[in-house]
Amino acid sequence: MSIRFGLIVGLLFAILVTYLTSINPSRVRVALGGDWAVDIPLMALVVCVFVAGAALALVLGVLRDVTRSYARRPAPIERVTPPEPVPADPDVLRAPEAPNRGRAGRDALIGERRWADALEAQTLLLQGAPREERAAEEATLAGLHYEVGRERLEKNDHPAATAHLKEALRLKQDFVPAALLLGEVYLKAGEPREALRVWERAADTPYPALPVLARIERLHREEGRPTRMISLYQDSLARQPDNLALAFGLGRVYFELAMLDEAAEQFQKMEVRAPELPLIHAYLGAILERRGQFRDAMEEYRRALRSSDGVEWPHRCAACGAAHSRWVDRCPACHRWNTCRP
């Protein structure tokens, strides 16, 4: 459309120049070189100059349009050769396996009873343990602190033993083995009040352990406080009325304090619930013997002997269910600490 408009303008300009030439006949002499010169009408010269300028502008416009058209053409698609796959770093591939390898190494150290080395390995494992596994890993760490503390105590390194046992209790407040041993450390240091404080804290739980209660009872007996011996088991039994082990402990204290009627009543109630427990019959026989009922006492003794290979209260591992004849700090079956329950 712009070219057509240019032609119309040029035609109109030519008509105008022709008209002006007709009314202005003046001529111009133009020298072309040497002696050669021509006379041409003035208007014809103006027309020639205009046409030359218009032609030059047209050529330049066409070149510009061609250049722009070429610039707008899409660039050819360059075929890209995919890079060679980079082999994965073997260390990166093995990284998810690191916790398992760490546990295997820790378990090997535990099997060799290298407690200090196992404690160091477990400390590193705990740092990278996910939240859902931290409780189990902390329990293992508490057990290793307990074992290292026991080793230090055997070497008479009481400060180090105390530090490790306290750390075990910091990790798990109800860690009975550490509480028992820490109290013994205080007793050896001549601090029975501190020992009692540790054991009473360990007993102040929904499920107090019999060894803890036995040690508190021993201190009260040595100090001549029988009423505290009785209240110790009464309070625990109030929290766990179905716990036969606590009921037995209360009956035994009654017997040791020569409260035979109370002891007999306690053991007779237990006999109804657990007739095959030998310890019940042993104490019932002892009560009858003190009352002078020797024939009945002998019968109870016989029942106790038929049912028992020992005089310890039976326990069971809360983790694996293994049965034990007495309380143990670490289950021989699953090798877990602090899982023994009456």
Please, could you describe this protein's structure?
The chain is mainly α. The strands form two sheets. The protein has a three-stranded antiparallel β-sheet, with no helix packed on it. A two-stranded antiparallel sheet has the order 1-2. The termini are far apart. About 2% of the residues have low confidence.
Task: Provide a short characterization of the protein structure.
By secondary structure, the chain is mainly α. 66% of the residues lie in helices and 6% in strands. α7 runs antiparallel to α8 (176-188) and α14 (278-290) runs antiparallel to α15 (294-307).
Provide keyphrases for this structure.
342 residues; mainly alpha; three-stranded antiparallel β-sheet; two-stranded antiparallel sheet; 15 helices
**Portion in strands:** 5-15%
Radius of gyration (Å): 53 Å
Question: How many DSSP H or I helices?
Answer: 15
What gross morphology would you assign? rod-shaped
User: Topology as H/E string?
Assistant: HEEHHHHHHHHHHHHHHEEE
Note poorly predicted spans: 88-95
Percent helix, as a range, is 55-70%
Strands in their spatial order, largest beta sheet: 4-3-5
Q: Report the strand count.
A: 5
CATH topology of the domain at 138-198: Serine Threonine Protein Phosphatase 5, Tetratricopeptide repeat
Task: Specify the oligomeric state.
Answer: single chain
Structural class category: mainly alpha
Which helices and strands occur, and which strands form pairs?
Layout: H1 2-23, E1 27-33, E2 36-41, H2 42-71, H3 90-94, H4 98-111, H5 115-127, H6 134-154, H7 158-171, H8 176-188, H9 192-203, H10 210-222, H11 226-239, H12 244-256, H13 260-273, H14 278-290, H15 294-307, E3 315-317, E4 323-324, E5 340-341
Antiparallel strand pairs: 1-2, 3-4, 3-5
Helix pairs in contact: 1-2, 4-5, 5-6, 6-7, 6-8, 7-8, 8-9, 9-10, 10-11, 11-12, 12-13, 13-14, 14-15
